[in-house]
């Protein structure tokens, strides 16, 4: 069954990364454009910065771990086909990175790493319906509007929620 036919996988776009004012952690905001379902995932400052840098197309002077993973995959002719947020247990999310070089393989990952890699390789991001149901709530949108009016670095009042994505993969020569 293809990803598109799997009704248990819901496509998500990264709206942005915001700061949790209560815990000094970062929250990546994922959203399904068709249903407006929102999935917030808390992570550390470094992990949030890696996602934000990918969203803003920032190219560091030296490759980050996620840039290295994307470059290795490209040079070894391995395609990152998708990432999936697969589970949530005790407020901890789990993810899988799906790879293919003619043979499909799945690697367990933290959602922050999977999302950062997805943004660098341009692959789609999904969540299982079960995870979205467990993490959703009727007032997620209201809650988000209070703590994240500037999701993705947009100033207050900017209503453009178009997700920004890096295109393609980067390699060392593109950094010069």
Question: Would you write up a description of this structure?
Answer:
The structure is a single chain. With 176 residues, this protein is of the alpha+beta class. Strand 2 (25-31) and strand 3 (38-43) form a beta hairpin. Helix 1 (45-55) runs parallel beside helix 3 and helix 2 crosses helix 3 (111-121). The N and C termini lie far apart (42 Å). It is 27% helix and 31% strand. The relative contact order is 0.22. It has a single domain (3-150), classed as Bifunctional nuclease domain.
Would you spell out the secondary-structure blueprint of this structure?
Blueprint (H helix, E strand, L loop, with lengths): L8 E12 L4 E7 L6 E6 L1 H11 L9 H11 L3 E11 L2 E9 L3 E6 L1 H11 L3 E4 H7 L4 H8 L29
Helix pairs in contact: 1-3, 2-3
What labels would you give this structure?
176 residues, alpha+beta, Bifunctional nuclease domain, seven-stranded mixed sheet, 7 strands, disordered N terminus, disordered C terminus
